[in-house]
Design brief:
single chain, mainly beta, Methylamine Dehydrogenase, Chain H, four-stranded antiparallel β-sheet, 5 helices, 47 strands, elongated, WD repeat
Length: 725
């Protein structure tokens, strides 16, 4: 969407551009795109008034005066194609002189000429799609950009232009990076504004956080303010609510304050994504009313979100007014997917264009700025008056954005079970003549441990035939399972589920909760098999043993416990004295021979012995034992965020991910780290797993542990362990 004085621009039928003149109420339809229009922007000058529209296949600049004349003459208006096949464009912006256009496509910013098809520069450096870019008007050739990688960058554009009389071809265009910020938040940065008066950068994220940075020379882009709009909104509503109760019963308080004062039980708390940041001319209409605004040098901002419009006072960073879409019955849009505002008010009114997040609908609003603020100030409190908002069109102008249908196909998981070898029965003790050497004269063992893989071929074949597997490959041509089969509530009151883990055969599910308990369900979630309680903190991790008889758990209380699935009492407890930091992850390893756990930047390898028998005299003494074998440290990291090791068969490989965004591969047979992958993701990896292969991989080491998958906030990656790519 885009707004400029008396004009509003929005897509129609996905690939057509509609320019709505609010003065004449006449639409102007422009055709030239074959794919959906994804970005729009008006030019900086009024004569001529330019509009840039972008889709994945082309970027077009339209001269509205020429297009209007073409329509009057009965001809089809045409724009100037300035870029082709740049990818998905999220944002476009004209330079102050309307000579260049900054196009944000993917991770790159293309500087295009506004007069012909020419790429003047390509600005690379962001690690995620660029969401907004703005030109600095008082600094020549400076561009500010923000991205989903949660950083902002400042670039100085150095332009070298050869002399051509036709001015159709640019020779070259170079760029230089001036400043790069660190990661500001865990959420993508969506909007950007450059405040010329205060020389500041203002950017907002998807969680309602606002940052203000100084652009004054010598300030080194320092952060001036950080505003939490959700908290400011709550403070504003409480202030209006208290003022309304003091006046008396005859006055009506704002509906938005009533809605925010008490949230209905069971309702979902919505986020406050900052879709738009724009200047607000509020000061012009209150210069004579010193009782309301004593600070004449104060600046104000419009903040457009999915739920409404907010006005922020930059002097004290407080909320001055809030317009909620749902408070107006004439407005059919309750949640906005995008919005645009006119930079300057006309006759005290501002035009706002919004689209619905869930429906094919666009609405043009006319907001009386002075009336909106007066109705929500404590000196007036006429908050029940809805005259501050005039809805020009509450329904869509044209059936744009064709309906998308999501085909939902439910699939049931096909679990398979593997036959278990018959247990060896008790045999009488037999003494043989030959006694095996104790190994005093043998060479020392160089490897830490190794499985018994010296089985004869006949024994291996018998083992394979005894394991009757009913595996069914998931059909690759089918859609992924996206419809849930069943939903249950694990507790009576809302409690976060910190971790879940299926048993190896997929028949049992263990859940670790924040209320310090562990629940075990069967796979179809029909009943609770068992409940374990004993931790003094939230349960961070649960892991099944290979034989499905034991469960290991780690908690925020810095303890580790091993539980018998058939008994509610822990068989093994490792207390706080064993671990200097919280244990984030624990699992059985090497077919239940060891336990692996993460503690800070280290992971520990523990050998253990479990004994659940009780002594009548020393009934409270723990008979199970545990011993530390070795500690392994991950290099250059503060904490291990995820760990993966195979317990279904013998494997020496342990994969770790750290808070420094790196991956490290350990070979426990050699007892050392074998490879490090720095900057595997742009964010810390929160989950890592490796291919478990088959149960007979001990005989075919080249066929297992070839792949691993990592998941972080920027996506999911599949790695080949042979090439580490």
């Amino acid at each position: 969407l885009a707004c400029s004085h008396h004009h509003c621009a929005f897509p129609v039928n996905r690939n057509e551009l509609c320019i709505w003149n609010t003065a004449t109420a006449q639409p102007l339809c422009l055709s030239g795109h074959h794919y959906s229009i994804s970005a729009l922007s008006f030019g900086s000058k009024m004569n001529p008034l330019l509009v840039c529209s972008a889709s994945r296949e082309r970027v077009i600049v339209w001269n509205l005066d020429e297009c209007t004349e073409k329509v009057k003459e009965g001809l089809t208006p045409r724009g100037i194609v300035i870029g082709t096949l740049l990818g998905v464009v999220l944002h476009v912006r004209f330079s102050p002189d309307d000579q260049q256009v900054a196009v944000c496509a993917g991770n790159c910013i293309y500087m295009l000429s506004a007069k012909n098809e020419a790429i003047l520069a390509e600005l690379h450096g962001h690690l995620a799609p660029v969401t907004a870019a703005e030109f600095c008007t008082w600094e020549k050739n400076m561009l500010i950009s923000v991205s989903e990688d949660r950083t902002f960058k400042a670039r100085k554009l150095c332009l070298s232009l050869p002399f051509f009389f036709s001015l159709k071809v640019w020779d070259y265009f170079t760029s230089k990076l001036i400043y790069q910020s660190g990661v500001l938040t865990a959420f993508p940065l969506l909007s950007l504004l450059i405040d010329k008066e205060n020389k500041q950068i203002i950017t907002g994220c998807a969680e309602g956080q606002l940052w203000i940075f100084s652009l004054i020379s010598g300030h080194n882009y320092r952060c001036v303010a950080h505003i939490n709009l959700k908290k400011e909104q709550e403070k504003f509503c409480n202030r209006v609510w208290k003022s309304g109760t003091e006046i008396g019963e005859g006055q009506n308080t704002s509906k938005i304050c009533k809605a925010n004062k008490v949230r209905p039980e069971g309702s979902a708390e919505t986020s406050l994504p900052i879709l738009l940041i724009e200047h607000c001319d509020l000061l012009i209409y209150f210069r004579s009313e010193e009782n309301i605004y004593s600070a004449l040098n104060t600046s104000y901002l419009w903040i457009g979100s999915s739920t409404g419009l907010l006005i922020i006072n930059l002097a004290n960073f407080e909320l001055e007014a809030f317009l909620s879409y749902k408070d107006y019955s004439d407005l059919s849009i309750r949640f906005a997917g995008s919005c645009a505002l006119t930079r300057k008010a006309v006759n005290g009114k501002v035009l706002c264009l919004i689209t619905s997040m869930f429906e094919d609908m666009v609405a043009l609003l006319e907001v009386n700025l002075a009336a909106l603020v007066r109705t929500q100030q404590s000196d007036f409190l006429l908050c029940g008056n809805e005259n501050s908002l005039s809805v020009i069109a509450s329904s869509y102008f044209f059936p744009f954005l064709s309906n998308y249908y999501f085909r939902v196909i439910g699939h049931k998981y096909n679990y398979f079970t593997i036959g278990v070898k018959s247990m060896v029965k008790d045999q009488p003790l037999v003494f043989h003549n030959k006694i095996r050497s104790s190994g005093y004269t043998a060479a020392p063992r160089m490897t830490m441990f190794s499985p018994n893989n010296n089985l004869k071929k006949k024994e291996v074949s018998k083992w394979k035939t005894s394991c009757k597997c009913e595996k069914k490959e998931y059909p690759l041509g089918s859609d992924p399972p996206i419809r849930y089969e069943k939903e249950i509530s694990v507790t009576c009151k809302p409690t976060p589920i910190c971790c879940i883990q299926y048993s190896g055969d997929g028949e049992m599910l263990a859940c670790g909760l924040a209320d310090k308990s562990i629940l075990i369900f069967n796979s179809n979630l029909t009943n609770t098999y068992n409940v374990f309680a004993g931790h003094d903190g939230a349960v961070n991790s649960v892991g099944w043993s290979h034989d499905k008889k034991w469960l290991v758990s780690a908690s925020e209380d810095r303890t580790l416990r091993v539980w018998s699935v058939c008994d509610n009492e822990p068989a093994l407890i490792l207390g706080k004295e064993k671990f200097p930091k919280t244990v984030r992850f624990a699992q059985f390893y090497f077919i239940d021979a060891f336990i692996l756990l993460c503690c800070g930047a280290e992971f520990h390898l523990l050998s253990f012995h479990l004994d659940t028998t009780k002594d009548d005299i020393k009934r409270y003494k723990q008979r199970s034992a545990c011993k530390l074998v070795q500690k392994f440290s991950m290099a250059s990291t503060m904490e291990i965020t995820s760990l993966s090791a195979v317990n279904d068969f013998y494997s020496y490989i342990v994969l770790t991910a750290g808070s420094n965004r790196a991956l490290e591969i350990f070979d426990l047979n050699a007892g050392c780290s074998t490879a490090v992958i720095p900057d595997a993701h742009t964010r810390s990896v929160h989950q890592i797993c490796q291919n478990k292969g088959s149960s007979f991989s001990t005989q075919q080491p080249e066929a297992y542990n070839l792949f691993m998958t990592t998941a972080a906030g920027d996506g999911i990656k599949l790695w080949d362990l042979r090439t580490l790519r």
